[in-house]
Here is the input.
Amino acid sequence: MTEGISPIDLVLDASGTALIVMLILLLLSIVSWVMIVQRWLVLSSAARNLLSFEQRFWSGMDLSQLYKEGSQLQKADNVQLVGMENLFRAGFKEFMRLRQQASVDREAVMEGAQRAMRVAFAREEEKLEKHLAFLATVGSVSPYIGLFGTVIGIMNSFLGLATQTQATLQVVAPGIAEALMATALGLWAAIPAVVAYNRYSTWVESITSSYITFSDEFSSILHRQIHSD
Amino acid sequence: MKSPIDNIVIYNGYPLSIIVAVGFHGLLLAFLLYLQTARAPEPLELVQPSVIKALFIDENPQVVNEKNVQRQRQERTEQQRVAREQEQRKVQQEQEVAQLQEAEKAREQERERAALVERQQLEQRQQAEKLRQEQEKRSTEERERQREVAEAERVKQQQQQRLEQDRQREGETSQAAQAEAARTELELVQSATALIHEEVRKQWSRPPSARNGMRVIIQIRMLPTGELIETKITQTSGDAAFDRAAEVAVYKASPSFRQLAVLPITIFNANFRSLSLIFQPEDLLN
Here is the structure.
């Protein structure tokens, strides 16, 4: 046993179960950080798009003009439209299509538009909530994985103690330290995942609630339009 | 309307987030490594805990006897060598003295002969030159012959001396070979005892009732194959658990005694057929 053991040494010297557990936890940590960054990018861009589209929507622009701009953007610049704009496009498209058919009455047109918006909303919500479940899983499971590694490690060091004639702290200390390293890594992976999960789920909630508000507002506009004829 | 960030989101932001996450972990690892290297040169004071060793005191009477015998044998050979050297020196001195005396005698004889010759010359000065020359010739011949004899004797003595020295040297080398053999034998014995002690010590787990100053002597008997036949407690420590622990240690260690089978049978019979092991804890805290 050399002097001055650092956490790095503990990881490098680990063997067997402890090493496997540590590698799993490291992998989980990396993947969860990938998810954290990716979710942050997606959610922040969704929030930004929400604001900019609301501005455009309430600027008094003609709705068919807004719809044409969107299609142009989609075709010419090959930009994938996100969020609220998709909601608007789905509802407006269905509304226009149904209104052109003379046989369909007003209520059916409204219902069709609302249904299309609900579908689009569900799709958008799914996009926003993707991977959040993974973060939640990492946050709740990785401490247990770490604990498992610790229990196995401590068990091994006690088994090693059994063969000694004289039990000294030096015999068990490195093994226990190594085992505790697994718990530390588990917590290390879990804490950011839990924080990110809580933060992002409230963010997603706020975005989806503004989607719902928008779709309600938009359907009231459509309602007004269809009854003004 | 569209910012660069949104273009990244077109690919759902995966490449960037993977780079960021891996880079973050790499940075963390590098930081830990840096901490380690920065901390390494600091002299760390380690408090050595009092590790308790199971001490095993070697007091094998047979080995001690063997050593004594060895020492005595060496001393005796040394004494013999010194005595022989002294004797040789004495012989040489005597020879030298004898040579000197002989030379003196020869010179005296010559002197007498010269005087005789002078006297004869005085008496027979009238006698023919021829005679004198003859006489002189004879005397020189005589002298030469004497010298030759002396020379021959000296050569013979030298040869004898050389022979004797050779013989002595031969004797010394054979003694050295014997000493060498004895030393390897001792080494074998020592390594075998070390093996036994090490194995027994490894297996020896002392009961909690063990105290400093306890002492149990166990006599073991072995076959030349290294098989343990019997153990006997010849001196008990007074604590049954301690005695039993020592005995158990011997039994547990006995499979490794098989290694003694490689020893020459003479050495085995002399040292290991029956053996006393002393178990004595030395450095317990209580």
About this structure: The helical segments of chain B are 4-10, 14-39, 61-123, 129-203, 240-253, 265-271. The mean pLDDT of chain B is 80.
